[in-house]
Amino acid sequence: MTDAVATLDATPFALFRVRVLGIRRVGPNIHRFTFTGPDLAHFADNGFDQRIKLVFPLPGVGLTAMPPGPDWYGQWRELPDHLRNPLRTYTVRAVRPELEQLDVDFAVHGRVGVASAWAFDAAPGDELVVVGPDRRFRGRHGGIDFVPPAHTGRYLLAGDETALPAIASVLERLPADACGAAVLEVADAADAAALPIGPLGMDVTVLGRDGREPGAALVPAVQRAAGLLCAGRSCARVDLEDVDVDSGMLWEVPTDEQGEALQDNTDLYAWLAGEAGVIKTLRRHLVAERGLDRRSVAFMGYWRQGRQEAN
Ligand SMILES: Cc1cc2nc3c(=O)[nH]c(=O)nc-3n(C[C@H](O)[C@H](O)[C@H](O)COP(=O)(O)OP(=O)(O)OC[C@H]3O[C@@H](n4cnc5c(N)ncnc54)[C@H](O)[C@@H]3O)c2cc1C
Known about the structure:
Layout: H1 3-7, E1 13-27, E2 30-36, E3 51-55, H2 72-78, E4 87-91, E5 94-96, E6 101-107, H3 114-121, E7 127-133, E8 151-160, H4 164-173, E9 179-186, E10 201-208, H5 218-229, E11 251-252, E12 265-275, H6 276-289, E13 297-303
Parallel strand pairs: 8-9, 8-12, 9-10, 12-13
Antiparallel strand pairs: 1-2, 1-7, 2-6, 3-4, 3-7, 5-6, 11-13
The structure holds flavin-adenine dinucleotide (FAD).
C-alpha cells in the first residue's frame, strides 16, 4: 500500500508489532532496546519527548489476545483481566524508519514491575507491540509535551532517569543557540553516558542518587539552577492549589486544544518530569515561591513511588 492510499484511513497513533533486535547498556542502569519490524517504516520521527505505549506479553498468552486495528483500545478495555496485556508509557529515544528500527531507553529498576521485569529478562527476538505515531497520518500526532513558546529566552529541563530519554531527545533538537540548564538525577552518575552533547549554551548537570530517596539530589539542584536563571526577574509569589499525586496524575502542560504553546514569548520555559512527589515539590518551588508563569512551565509525574502505572 502506498503512503498516499494509507493516509485515507490512518490514525494519529497505530500499533506497531516489533521484536528486539539488540540491547545495549548505555549506562549502568539504562538499557537501550533497539526494536525492529516492517511496520516501523511508517513510524513518525517527531523527536522531543514523543511518548509511546509499550504493550507487554502476558505469561502463557503472549500478545495473541491484543486486538489489532484502529479500534484496538475499546476492544482491549473489554478484555477480561487475564487476557488484557499491560501497557506502560515510554519515550522514543530515536527512530530510523528507513531501517525499520526504534530505540527506547529503559531505566531498569529491578524486577518490580511488568516493564522493568520484562526489560531485565528480554533477549533478541522477543516480541512487543508499540503504540506510536503513524507518519501516514497527516496532522498532529499528539504525545509531545515539550512545547516552548516560539520565542523562548532560556530553557530549564529537569528530571530523573525516566525523563533522561526525553531530555536527551530535546537536547538533540534544540536550536544550536539555545541556552539554559538541564538538571538530571539518575541512579548512578555514570548513567549520564546516555546523554548527547547538547547546544553549548545549555549547562548540563547530572547527579547520582547513590541510594538516596528520589529527589534528594534533584530538588536542591533545580532550586539552584532556577535561582540563577531567574536572577533579575520580578518574582510574585502565587497561591497554588494542591495536587494529590497518590490518587491522580500530576500532569500540567501549558498547551491549547491544538497542542500549541499558550504564549509567543517567554524569558524562561521549564519542562520537568520524573517521580510525581518530587515534581510536585519542584512545582511548588517554581510556581509558588519563584513565581514562574504557569503558561511556560510543564510538570509531569512520570511515575509514582509505590504505585504501578494505571492502565
Ligand atoms: C510520558 C512518559 C514517558 C516515560 N518514558 C520513559 C522512558 O523512556 N524510560 C523509562 O525507563 N521510563 C519512562 N517512563 C516511566 C515508566 O513509564 C514508569 O517507570 C513505569 O512505571 C515502569 O513500569 P513498570 O512496569 O516497570 O513498573 P510499575 O508496574 O508501573 O510499578 C511497579 C513498582 O515500580 C515502581 N517504579 C516504577 N518506575 C520506577 C522507577 N523508574 N524507579 C524505581 N521504581 C519505579 C513503582 O513505584 C511501583 O512501586 C515514562 C513515563 C511517562 C508517563
